[in-house]
């Protein structure tokens, strides 16, 4: 029995001695929801933390002082790490980043290759989770983005990330990229990086005031806009929404989007909602020259019909399907031609070649950008309209 | 030796726990990139051959453990010495695994806690459980294998649900040819985890069903090999080979990717629990084998007497075995497999096999002669 | 009916008297009975004196002198203990027959000896034994039998007239089954035995009665099905019971404490139940029951951990429902054990593992709380334990008041005053409710105690501490044995056949074989386990 007692005693002694090294109280932490990284004019790096004021977010009775739900603290330094360290001095409680869900990087900084520097820091810190989304602030600095007060969803960062996820699903004009996606795109040789942009629309100054969320029509709101294209870890250009959508089609990440097709001369008379899409990319090597074949399979339903077409006629549906296929093809072609022009393989065709023809890829690897620019790409779109909505024909058709 | 009996199922359980203990932490075979599964498969087949050798030796001396039959094969003094080296080897692996575990837990979860405390608590737990006897360890193993299987099932189900699984991460197959696969499999995957079956040569005599040894051992080996392949490939499918290659704890990174709805996220605890449990059994089995071997060699009647001092040595050496994690990992990946694992897992058993086969032949011939 | 049963008991108990009886008689002798073990004399007065000297001046001793016949003068005396005897029986079957007018003729006319005449022809009590030794007689007297001395006969007639007031058979209070039988054990062993006997009408069922406790001389019955129960285990139970060396045995709890396998464990290794159907079922499965006179709780051994999660109701419900409820019980037990500690670990160490929305809510709640999470949880748990204890021992009416005050004070006021957070109240309350789902009260208690240990582990090392604590706990459970049976069976060691009544309850038709844990063909190395864990050795195991 003494052995047993000795065991318990020693265990409890060590437990008491060891005493909670890593323990910390939840109330003593500043929960960071977003980080913004800017480059100042003097070359220093400015790091901003958006910290959640928990009691303001939950609206606890008594605890709420009517303060803003988030506060932004920032500081600058020669390196990101130094700046972050300095910024923690300003924050009242220790920084707690695991709940980070947004990283905003200044457009200017990204153009100078700042993304890679940032990500290196993220990869090392065990407290940082790699699920946070990465975005580029377009036309403004990252800090201002974090400072915008957003209505409805109180924490700006959360608002943006949920919005992004929804946007990817319903429009396909944006692509959610988290830190892991960015890292793997940056390290991959057969794929270039694209990151969504974010900007402030409306009055920037007014958007940062608390009154902004008290109005039914806010003065300044955050808007997700455009897709930044990277080459060699540097931001080189922006894609517009149409081109972004083309990329999303090729990546097979479209879940739901609306496309308009022509009817009786009206170019946007019929709106078709995509319900499902699937992209299959095949690479072929002919005469030592790679080519890419993209097959898109789309299934959708009629969303809106503003012309007199008779959809009880199967032929009409077939016609519309053909028009839709052309429309999608056009979208994709525009994206591809833009990418080829800039010599950036944002579609990951290089990866496809690597996966399907690993031996040939070794030869192309070194000058893939140039090869991509004049790559032979064929696109097949198979559009299917499965459903016509709750009714078959439009009012215009019935009037006739 | 304790007078204990373990059932074939418990033996199976211990094999699976020992093998999974490693697979949870690292993804073996990732040196072969997305062809890891081929490397593991190769390593596994090597492991099967090794286990055939071990079980052949066991069947020659079904009542004895490795340190007991070594003197019978190699002669009293040399056998004793090799047996002593084996005991040290088991303790050394236990030490290394303990260090692996401590480093991982410190970096992943408890950045401010000293490594010593983490290791100390683990060692205390191991001392308690082993002092209750090997039977208790194996019964505890049965319980926790069920738990780990359950966690594994849940996690893999969630992986599939989360839509993070991308099968194209497995392509291309054999993009670099066979060379990287073979060099990843031998000696690394062969010796870690499959060659570690050598530790069971100490425990085999406890089995209550001698005929089952070979069958259960092989089933356990193949089953755990399949699980390791599955786990590794799941990590690669979720994370992509680049991240798996770089991550210190791929399973944790993969699980943190799970996000279903707004609520089923941040399930890292599952990875951490699997890590603690898996490592516990792995270290405990090695320490037990080492302590048992030592107590046999020095003719100590109750191995429990040696448990505490040896565990203190293991604890202290695990903390001081390397200055930092990089040094430790380098040793583990480059030096240990070639110069430590290979001799103990492959060369010496092979030598023993050759000697016993020759001895059997000679004695058989003599018998024949005497008959004539 | 009662008489019939008690008679049976005596008869069945007779084989055991060789090993059971010797000791008590010697013990009684040592207990300062200056007269020692006397043999009865022919003289009535001497016999009376022997009884009175030993039993002494006690008001509940009833002495009734009789004159059986005046010519020749045959005197007699009947002793009994007030309250223990059935007065009606004594009056009708002893006194009335002995004082009957026609008796004289019988006494005179018949040729056989007086002793035989009285025993065989006169006494109409349905069980009469003759005894020559004083201490056995006194034991019988103190058990509620009546003693008759006749002048000139050096033996005592012991008449089984046990009676007196018992609590009637009622519905069990601690184990309630909705569809099951409603009878529960009471404090009388003979009635308890009859309740079991009524369910299993098999001659295989044996009751061995021994007397335990140097002073209390409590009847303890070892009950088993011969041929089904493992004979070695039965012998082990016998041996352990015979080793008991205490003054009084007042309840089955003390028997359990004295014969359990390991002295230091928080976990019960014997099941105690007040339901005859549970005992009958266990006996049929090959387990052994120990019935202690004076307690409505019967002990069952060997039992496994899973046994404590089975309620009698499980077998009266559909198997699907029972299985689900059983799983629920295991989950609830885990919650009761780990609830607060996991919460503490999350709040103090692993804030990154809480979903973001929840972490914000929790952070907001905790903003004004003056204590760290561990202290807060500890205060709440202790308060809850105090409330529970207060409510339990109070008269029912006050008990309700206690719970109302408790609910108001803890639930409402403490949260509003900002002393504890609402989330902590939810966790502690949820844990408390979860702990009530365990059918076995004594197992729920172990979870309650271990919960505090787990909380300390969680507060010092977070999830790591809890996981290691759990490994130690499972290893401890795996090291336990209940009369040779591994405690964690059928999970560890894994026994496929017994899974049919482990975590799940398979339909009855699918269970062709009996549980193999406790019967003769037990594959597990029971014998070794028995030797390793005898109570005498528990003192020096690690």
UniProtKB/TrEMBL annotation, chain A:
Supply the alphabetized keyword list.
Answer: Germination, Lipoprotein, Membrane, Palmitate, Signal
Q: Which residues form the Spore germination GerAC-like C-terminal domain?
A: 225-389
Q: Which domain of life is it from?
A: Bacteria
State its location(s): Membrane
Give a Gene Ontology cellular component term annotated to this protein.
membrane
- In Gene Ontology terms, what is a biological process of this protein? spore germination
State the annotated membrane topology for this chain.
Answer: Lipid-anchor
InterPro entries of this UniProt entry? GerAC_N, Spore_GerAC-like, Spore_GerAC-like_C, Spore_GerAC_C_sf
Residues spanning the membrane: none
Q: Which PROSITE patterns match?
A: PROKAR_LIPOPROTEIN (PS51257)
All copies of the Spore germination protein N-terminal domain together span: 23-198
Gene3D superfamilies in UniProt: Nutrient germinant receptor protein C, domain 1, Nutrient germinant receptor protein C, domain 3
Keyword Lipoprotein listed: yes
A Pfam family assignment = Spore_GerAC
Q: Its family?
A: Belongs to the GerABKC lipoprotein family.
NCBIfam families the UniProt entry points to: spore_ger_x_C
Q: What is this protein called?
A: Uncharacterized protein
Species lineage: Bacteria, Bacillati, Bacillota, Bacilli, Bacillales
From TrEMBL, chain B:
Q: What membrane topology is annotated for this entry?
A: Multi-pass membrane protein
What family is this? Answer: Belongs to the amino acid-polyamine-organocation (APC) superfamily. Spore germination protein (SGP) (TC 2.A.3.9) family.
One GO biological process term = spore germination
Protein name, per record: Spore gernimation protein KB
Q: Which InterPro entries match?
A: Spore_GerAB
Highest taxon of source: Bacteria
Q: Which UniProt keywords apply?
A: Germination, Membrane, Transmembrane, Transmembrane helix, Transport
Q: Which PANTHER family match?
A: SPORE GERMINATION PROTEIN A2
Where does it localize? Answer: Membrane
Any stretches that span the bilayer, and where are they?
12-30, 36-57, 78-95, 115-136, 143-161, 181-204, 216-241, 269-294, 306-322, 342-362
Record has DNA damage as a keyword? no
Statement: the UniProt record of this protein carries the keyword Ligase? no
Q: Enumerate the Gene3D superfamilies for this protein.
A: Amino acid/polyamine transporter I
Cellular component terms (Gene Ontology): membrane
């Amino acid at each position: 029995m003494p052995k047993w007692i000795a065991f318990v005693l020693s265990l409890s002694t060590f437990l008491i001695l060891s005493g909670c090294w890593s323990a910390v109280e939840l109330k003593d932490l500043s929960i960071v929801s977003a980080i913004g990284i800017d480059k100042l004019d003097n070359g220093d790096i400015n790091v901003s933390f958006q910290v959640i004021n928990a009691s303001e977010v939950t609206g606890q009775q008594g605890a709420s002082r009517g303060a803003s739900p988030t506060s932004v603290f920032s500081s600058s330094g020669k390196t990101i790490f130094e700046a972050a360290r300095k910024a923690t001095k300003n924050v009242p409680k220790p920084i707690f980043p695991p709940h980070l869900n947004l990283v905003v990087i200044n457009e200017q900084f990204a153009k100078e290759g700042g993304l890679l520097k940032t990500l290196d820091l993220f990869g090392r810190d065990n407290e940082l989770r790699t699920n946070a989304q990465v975005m580029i602030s377009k036309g403004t600095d990252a800090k201002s983005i974090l400072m915008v007060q957003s209505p409805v969803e109180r924490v700006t960062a959360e608002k943006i990330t949920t919005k992004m996820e929804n946007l990817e699903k319903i429009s396909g004009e944006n692509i959610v990229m988290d830190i892991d996606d960015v890292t793997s795109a940056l390290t991959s040789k057969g794929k270039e990086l694209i990151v969504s942009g974010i900007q402030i629309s409306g009055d920037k100054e007014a958007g940062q005031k608390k009154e902004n969320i008290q109005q039914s029509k806010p003065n300044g709101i955050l808007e997700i806009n455009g897709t930044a294209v990277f080459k060699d870890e540097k931001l080189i250009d922006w894609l517009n929404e149409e081109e972004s959508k083309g990329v999303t089609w090729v990546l097979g990440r479209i879940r739901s989007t609306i496309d308009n097709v022509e009817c009786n001369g009206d170019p946007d008379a019929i709106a078709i909602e995509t319900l499902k899409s699937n992209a299959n990319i095949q690479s072929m090597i002919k005469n030592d020259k790679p080519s890419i074949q993209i097959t898109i399979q789309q299934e959708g339903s009629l969303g809106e019909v503003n012309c007199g077409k008779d959809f009880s006629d199967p032929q009409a549906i077939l016609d519309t399907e053909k028009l839709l296929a052309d429309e999608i093809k056009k979208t994709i072609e525009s994206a591809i031609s833009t990418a080829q022009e800039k010599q950036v393989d944002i579609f990951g065709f290089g990866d496809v070649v690597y996966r399907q023809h690993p031996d040939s890829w070794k030869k192309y690897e070194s000058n893939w950008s140039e090869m991509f620019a004049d790559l032979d790409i064929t696109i097949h779109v198979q559009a299917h309209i499965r459903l016509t909505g709750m009714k078959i024909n439009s009012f215009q058709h019935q009037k006739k | 030796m304790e007078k204990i009996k373990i059932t074939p199922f418990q033996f199976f359980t211990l094999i699976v726990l020992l093998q999974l203990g490693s697979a949870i932490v690292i993804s073996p075979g990732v040196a072969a990139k997305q062809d890891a599964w081929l490397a593991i498969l190769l390593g596994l087949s090597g492991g099967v051959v090794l286990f055939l050798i071990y079980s052949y030796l066991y069947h020659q001396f079904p009542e004895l453990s490795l340190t007991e039959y070594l003197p019978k094969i190699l002669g009293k003094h040399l056998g004793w010495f090799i047996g002593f080296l084996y005991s040290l080897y088991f303790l050394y692996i236990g030490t290394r695994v303990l260090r692996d575990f401590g480093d991982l837990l410190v970096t992943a979860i408890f950045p401010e806690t000293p490594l010593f405390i983490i290791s100390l608590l683990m060692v205390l737990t191991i001392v308690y459980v082993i002092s209750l006897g090997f039977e208790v360890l194996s019964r505890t193993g049965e319980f926790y294998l069920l738990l780990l299987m359950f966690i594994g099932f849940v996690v893999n189900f969630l992986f599939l649900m989360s839509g993070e699984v991308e099968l194209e991460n497995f392509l291309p197959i054999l993009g670099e040819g066979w060379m990287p696969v073979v060099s990843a499999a031998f000696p690394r995957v062969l010796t870690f985890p499959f060659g570690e079956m050598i530790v069971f040569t100490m425990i085999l005599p406890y089995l209550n069903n001698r005929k089952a040894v070979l069958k259960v051992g092989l089933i356990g080996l193949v089953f755990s090999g399949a699980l390791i392949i599955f786990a590794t490939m799941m990590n690669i499918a979720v994370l992509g080979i680049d991240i798996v290659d770089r991550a210190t704890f791929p399973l944790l990174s993969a699980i943190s990717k799970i996000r279903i709805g707004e609520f089923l996220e941040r399930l890292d605890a599952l990875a951490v629990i699997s890590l603690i449990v898996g490592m516990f059994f792995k270290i405990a089995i090695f320490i037990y084998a080492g302590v048992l071997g030592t107590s046999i060699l020095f003719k100590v009647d109750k191995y429990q007497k040696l448990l505490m001092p040896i565990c203190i040595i293991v604890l202290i050496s695990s903390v001081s075995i390397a200055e930092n994690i990089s040094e430790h990992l380098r040793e583990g990946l480059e030096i240990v497999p070639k110069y430590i694992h290979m001799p103990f897992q492959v060369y010496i058993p092979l030598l023993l096999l050759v000697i016993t086969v020759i001895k059997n032949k000679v004695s058989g011939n003599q018998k024949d002669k005497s008959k004539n | 009916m009662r008489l019939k049963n008690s008679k049976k008991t005596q008869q069945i108990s007779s084989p055991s008297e060789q090993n059971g009886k010797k000791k008590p008689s010697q013990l009684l002798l040592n207990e300062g009975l200056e007269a020692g073990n006397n043999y009865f004399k022919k003289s009535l007065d001497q016999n009376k004196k022997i009884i009175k000297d030993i039993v002494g001046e006690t008001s509940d001793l009833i002495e009734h002198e009789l004159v059986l016949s005046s010519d020749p003068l045959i005197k007699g005396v009947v002793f009994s203990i007030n309250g223990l005897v059935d007065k009606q029986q004594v009056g009708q079957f002893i006194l009335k027959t002995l004082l009957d007018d026609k008796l004289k003729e019988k006494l005179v006319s018949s040729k056989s000896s007086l002793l035989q005449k009285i025993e065989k022809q006169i006494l109409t009590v349905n069980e009469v034994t003759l005894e020559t030794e004083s201490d056995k007689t006194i034991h019988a007297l103190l058990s509620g039998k009546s003693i008759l001395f006749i002048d000139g006969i050096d033996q005592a007639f012991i008449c089984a007239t046990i009676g007196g007031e018992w609590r009637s058979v009622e519905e069990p209070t601690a184990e309630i089954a909705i569809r099951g039988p409603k009878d529960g054990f009471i404090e009388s062993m003979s009635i308890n035995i009859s309740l079991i006997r009524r369910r299993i009408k098999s001659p295989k069922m044996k009751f061995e009665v021994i007397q335990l406790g140097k002073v209390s001389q409590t009847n303890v019955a070892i009950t088993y099905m011969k041929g089904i129960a493992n004979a070695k285990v039965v012998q082990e139970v016998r041996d352990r019971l015979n080793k008991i060396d205490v003054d009084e045995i007042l309840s089955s709890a003390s028997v359990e404490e004295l014969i359990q396998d390991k002295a230091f464990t928080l976990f019960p290794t014997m099941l105690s139940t007040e339901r005859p159907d549970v005992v009958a079922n266990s006996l049929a499965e090959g387990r052994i029951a120990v019935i202690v006179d004076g307690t409505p709780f019967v002990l069952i051994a060997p039992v496994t951990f899973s046994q404590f999660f089975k309620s009698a109701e499980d077998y009266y419900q559909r198997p699907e429902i029972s299985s689900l409820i059983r799983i629920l019980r295991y989950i609830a037990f885990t919650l009761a054990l780990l609830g607060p500690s996991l919460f503490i670990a999350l709040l103090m160490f692993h804030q990154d593992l809480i979903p973001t929305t929840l972490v914000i809510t929790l952070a907001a709640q905790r903003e004004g709380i003056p204590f760290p999470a561990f202290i807060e949880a500890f205060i709440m748990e202790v308060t809850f334990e105090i409330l529970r204890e207060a409510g339990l021992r109070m008269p029912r009416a006050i008990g309700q008041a206690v719970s109302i005050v408790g609910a108001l004070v803890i639930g409402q006021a403490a949260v509003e005053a900002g002393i504890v957070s609402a989330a902590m109240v939810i966790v502690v309350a949820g844990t408390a409710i979860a702990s009530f789902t365990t059918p076995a009260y004594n197992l729920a208690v172990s979870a309650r105690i271990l919960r505090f240990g787990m909380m300390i582990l969680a507060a010092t090392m977070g999830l790591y501490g809890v996981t290691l604590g759990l490994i130690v706990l499972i290893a401890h459970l795996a090291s336990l044995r209940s009369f040779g049976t591994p405690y964690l069976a059928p999970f560890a060691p894994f026994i496929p056949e017994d899974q049919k009544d482990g975590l799940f309850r398979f339909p009855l038709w699918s269970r062709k074989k009996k549980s193999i844990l406790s019967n003769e063909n037990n594959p597990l190395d029971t014998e070794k386990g028995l030797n390793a864990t005898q109570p005498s050795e528990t003192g020096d195991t690690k």
